[in-house]
User: Fold these one by one.
Assistant:
Number 1:
Amino acid sequence: MSISNFNMLSISIIIPTLNRPLALKSTIGSILLSKYLPLEIIVIDQSEKNIYEQNKLNLKKLNPNIEIIHHFVNFQSSTKARNLGINLSKGDILLFCDDDIEIDNLVLFKLVKIFYFDSNISLIGAYDYENNRIFNKSILPYFIGYNNLFKLNEGHINFSMRGVFPFYPKKELLKTNWAMGFFFALRREYLIKFNIYFDEKLSKYAYSEDLDFTYRYIQTLRKHNMRAYFYNKLKVFHKYTKEFRDQNYDKVFHYYTNRLYLIKKLKFHHFAYIHFYFFNLALLFKFILKPKQFFLHLKAIIRSLRCNFDEL
């Protein structure tokens, strides 16, 4: 069916950005080449003032024929930025994406089409084709208890609060109870109806804020017989730009502590704490030949043991 054959749902795209002018320009340029254009693109810009001005100039040069809301804020928090984007949005479907992605020109059409034809779909998540993060490629994590052996072809969250992709699925749509934050879409009306927002306690680098948000949304809508899926026909390339991306202690600390906070908040089984520390200590061995990284992660894990979450 052609794009013009039926009246589909409108899309609002929400993009938080922080000091990545080249990546942001490329991302929005990619979106503007789509066969099906969104109603609006909402950029929540947390950049330094001079980079914000550069972003403003870059977006003006793109000369889009859709509305781009470029909103400057004086905080640095992806959760606050996305919540602001929700409140500014008007579309039927909200698409959350990072500022360093690239899509092919049919992705938005495929996305809105699947929401249009199945009113019981609450959320659609994409795979990361750039980094081959499409499906799990090893069965080993399932046998050692890191992933759930009974959910081979389902997206799920393990006890360490990490999202797990399906294992070599054959279907185009695979059930999931989470989605990765670089690219996922959901129905705006239910966010408003059930008052679901990103947890702003997950501030700063906000690791796992997307996992928490999508999990709560999916679980809420599941009670109303609605389903969430990964859709392997959405070809999205997550570029992982090197702009404003460094590994420091504060980031590593939040990587671990935010996950502990979510284990407590989402009331996962008590075994989750044992699982969390056992596998995180085991994962340290991948840094065994990189002493600086090894001790950076070890220090963060030890500090997380006594964290009361006021440090987030």
Number 2:
Amino acid sequence: MKPNSFLYLFLLFAFASTACELFQVAPATQTAVVQTTVAASWTATQPFTPAPTGTEAPTPPPDPCAPEKLAAAVQEVNDLQRQFDDLSALATQLQREQVPDKITEMQSLLQTAADQETPPCLKALMGHQVKHMNLVIDTFLAFMDGTDKQTLDDKIKQAREEHDRYILEYAHLLGLTPTPEIITG
């Protein structure tokens, strides 16, 4: 074979290959353009900020037993006690047939008191409160059932003693000196 025929065959093969897309010049150019575009988009983004790892401690809720919060926490408990005391005093003034409605209201206040969250510093105060409320309600129920006078007097005495314990704890928490005025309210 002559060298010209060899060159002719080579050109024919190259032309045929290009026509059949054996040599793909365009896709290589497109790939280079796409890679350049991707690289350019990476450099235009914001710098990476790592997500929180969860090791940061959450902010704890305010401590109701902290000195600056204690008076407000005690007041919240005492507001409920005052409502109960007012309601029980009113019940003593009513006709016998009107008392059951007030007992129901006192039981509702007792339930509210029992359901209150109790910080450690108020456990004793709230314990006296709930015990006093139970004793008062039991006394009214005994009265409604026609219990004898001596039993009623004993129940009233127990309720009063528990109320006095409540008031002494209240005074202690607020740094007050217990006096007869504090105890009798």
Number 3:
Amino acid sequence: MLRTLLAAVFLLTACCGAAAKELEPWSGGKTPALVIKDMQSKVHDLAAYRGKVVLVNFWATWCEPCRDEMPSIEKLKARFAGRPFVVLAVNVDEPESRIRNFLTRLPLSFPVLVDHERKFTKAWNVRMLPATFVVGPGGGIRYSVAGELDWGAREVEEQLAALFPER
């Protein structure tokens, strides 16, 4: 219990850090596995999305910057409709009832995955929320950002569009 409380306090204080300004090229090594269930108990395996650009966003309902950036992620997904683009929102160890309540206020068109016990949060070395990783079509992480990002920014859209396989 104490360990869980300390982890929550750490993430809460980290959540309040300065907002990120841009996507950073990834230099953190190999992409960790991500095989996790969504709110409907469907298993999502990152490896199954090979050939697509995947935005993996770690977030929580209590994290204000996380909540603030969700609408811009939703718009980004809509802008890339018809392209090989997937968003996976990984909630960090919250009760599903709390997540469902949040989703009634802000419906999302992408899967919301739940990282019970923070297994993937740890494996992906997430130190603050929100934390987002952009996985390229080859399966490797290409960019990351710790903190809130305006996913509607032209530069961000250009960086992501450059990852799509040529048609």
